[in-house]
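Re: Re: ligand-bound prediction request (bumping)

Still looking for help on this. To restate: I need the protein modeled with 3,4-dihydroxyphenylalanine bound, output as structure tokens. Inputs repeated here so nobody has to scroll up.
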Amino acid sequence: MALKENIQSLLTQVGELKANNAEELEALRIKYLSKKGEITALFNEFRNVPNDQKRELGQMLNQLRQQAESRINALREQFEEAAAETDHPDLTRTPDPIALGTRHPLSLVREEIEDIFSRIGFTIAQGPEVEDDKHVYGMLNFAPEHPARDMQDTFFIEKEIGVQKPTDVLLRSHTSSVQTRVMTSQKPPIRVLCPGRVYRNEAISARAHCFFHQVEGLYIDKNVSFADLREALLYFSKEMFGPETKIRLRPSYFPFTEPSAEMDISCNICGGTGCSFCKGTGWVEILGCGMVDPNVLEACGIDSKEYSGFAFGMGIERITNLKYRVKDLRLFSENDVRFLRQFESC
Ligand code: DAH
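Reply:
Sorry for the wait, this slipped through. Here it is.
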């Protein structure tokens, strides 16, 4: 009989209903369940069914409507879940593993030096890497024929490509050039730390590189003395290498300081008893320093009768080597992740 067959064929159709999106699903609901839908039409036909068949067909029709509704509801839930996921990503989900980078050891050490000096009032000053002779040498009291200016040390920059004329444009060979920049642009009191990259015409090897990093310190005020310099450096050494650290100052020469000294710290590897790192002496050299030469103050427009000051300069690679035993300088610029990963927890 027609109604029974219609119900059965719709039952199979309903069991296989599929929709690709919410619009398709709504079309299915209208097709089967709306007032003019196919199932509703069968219910209308049901009115004319003879009484003795009403029970059986009535049950079948109700089952058909239930199945259609539950199938359509199940499909609707699927779309709602998918939509909810795109609108509100699940924030509790474990993220895809993103490989974290590491801080470069030279940055770690530079920041530690900056941090230590900032606690005694030093601020950061920067200057250009491409400099002129005046700021790198002239105002720092280097005699015109000083060997540091020599082509073997300094990279000069050709003003016209391929034309090798004498030039006063160069890559700075030390961060002391930032001293002259600061002294000509600021009035004392001056208390600055100048970290940066410097360049020297050296063959690249484990112990030398054509670029490396320095931190320069400068303090200018009334009545600054050599004792202030010593105290500042002792404080730095203890903060950097531990409270047991001792320092010693050896007389030295730099054109821009008078008197000048080189500073050693007690070897932080053997504690001063002597090892292969300190060549059995118990001491390792870490920086150059001194009282700013009055000629430098005057060249920068600061009255040397009113003001005095101290300066120091250290190599960041050297300090990093002492802290982390990096023996080969080339490792710092090779970007080998196996080397860099060793500083992950620092
Ligand atoms: N500029 C020196 C160098 O590159 C380091 C240095 C020594 C800086 C003594 C200073 C200083 O400020 O007082 O070797």
